[in-house]
TrEMBL record:
Pathway: Nitrogen metabolism; (S)-allantoin degradation; (S)-ureidoglycolate from allantoate (aminidohydrolase route): step 1/1. Pfam families: Allantoicase. GO terms for biological process: allantoin catabolic process; purine nucleobase metabolic process. It catalyses: allantoate + H2O = (S)-ureidoglycolate + urea. This is Probable allantoicase. It comes from the Bacteria. It comes from Natronocella acetinitrilica.
């Protein structure tokens, strides 16, 4: 008889976590570099992007198998710690210390330090306090908003004195130092590493638009933006912010794995936005200039478009229209940086 896994229930995310990147996502490249101890459970499990699971009858040579990072019981004073290199440098808005399924073995408290060391390993003097020592509860999420404007590349999680953390999630905006990048090269301005952001969307029933920015092709039909079946007039859309204003030269739209549910057509509108709020862009975007006129799409294919509308100039935001609904795996906008005033 196969093991039956119990999955942690979904929780409502706070504002700082919605439409933000989990910078501690192992599938994006985050790595737990070192720790004081991992006797019961490997530190890397803590960075798994999937919800934690529990197998009631699973044991290994060290004892009960747990889905997270777990240290042995301390008998000599002190406390345990783990150093994590984030998948991407980013400005952190908040964290989630998730103790799902850790009931009698969770840490009573934890704190987090941070540093920005993009080209090397942190020294002791590099660390700064990010989250002060805070109490934890078993089998629960501890969401903590963070007020820290500087980019971060590494975290050091301290647990007091020992125990297990199912998941460490670090929500923020990827940060790119554009001042060090040549302006005459082509960049994918919707790459996660370049700081792209999803502003708004009509629907995300099967997948959030943030997945459009992930590296590589989609792994499966769940790795993309997909809307429900539209039963009313109109079409679905999402508004995306480029990592930097640019003049777009090529559009690539990938419908990988979407076969019976890809959009019939797509179009893209764009603008160089200099004022307003994220909410106001929803109305503004309906009147933006056309960057890519309506184009037919095919199932499970990469579509490349170079014949874009002329005279549109630099843009900072785009509105992807999928007609009438369906799923898109990835969207790439290749362009050259606009170094002038970001706006008109």
């Amino acid at each position: 008889m196969s093991e039956q896994a119990i999955q942690a229930p979904a929780v409502e995310l706070p504002e700082f976590a919605r439409a933000r990147v989990n910078l501690a996502d192992a599938s994006l490249g985050a790595e737990a570099l070192a720790c004081s101890d991992e006797f019961f459970a490997d530190r890397q499990r803590m960075l798994n992007p999937d919800p934690a699971v529990f197998y009631p009858d699973r044991y290994d040579e060290h004892g009960k198998w747990m889905d997270g990072w777990e240290t042995r019981r301390r008998r000599n004073g002190g406390h345990d710690w783990c150093v994590v290199r984030l998948a991407l440098p980013g400005v952190i808005l908040g964290v989630d210390l998730d103790t799902s399924f850790f009931t009698g073995n969770y840490p009573p408290a934890a704190s987090i330090e941070a540093c920005c060391k993009p080209d090397g390993e942190p020294a002791e003097s590099d660390w700064q306090l990010l989250v002060a020592s805070t109490s934890l509860q078993g089998d629960s999420h501890r969401f903590i908003a963070v007020d820290h404007d500087n980019p971060v590349t590494h975290l050091r999680l301290h647990i007091y004195p020992d125990g297990g953390i199912a998941r460490l999630r670090v929500y923020g905006d990827p940060w790119c130092d554009w001042s060090r990048k040549p302006a005459d090269q082509l960049y994918d301005l919707l790459a996660l590493e370049h700081g792209a952001r999803a502003i708004a969307y009509s629907d995300s029933h099967y997948g959030h638009p943030m997945r459009l920015f992930r590296p590589g092709r989609g792994l499966n039909m769940g790795d993309g933006w997909e809307t429900r079946r539209r039963r009313e007039p109109g079409n679905d859309w999402c508004i995306l912010q480029l990592g930097h204003p640019a003049v777009i030269e090529r559009v690539e739209l990938d419908t990988a794995h979407f076969k019976g549910n890809y959009p019939d057509c797509c179009s893209i509108q764009a603008a160089l936005v200099t004022w307003g709020t994220d909410e106001s862009l929803i109305t503004q975007s309906m009147f933006w200039d056309t960057l890519l006129p309506e184009q037919p799409l095919q199932a499970d294919s990469i579509h490349s478009f170079t014949e874009l509308a002329s005279g549109i100039g630099p843009v900072s935001h785009v509105r992807l229209n999928v007609i009438p609904d369906g799923g898109v795996s990835r969207l790439r906008l290749w362009g050259r940086l606009h170094r002038g005033e970001e706006g008109a």
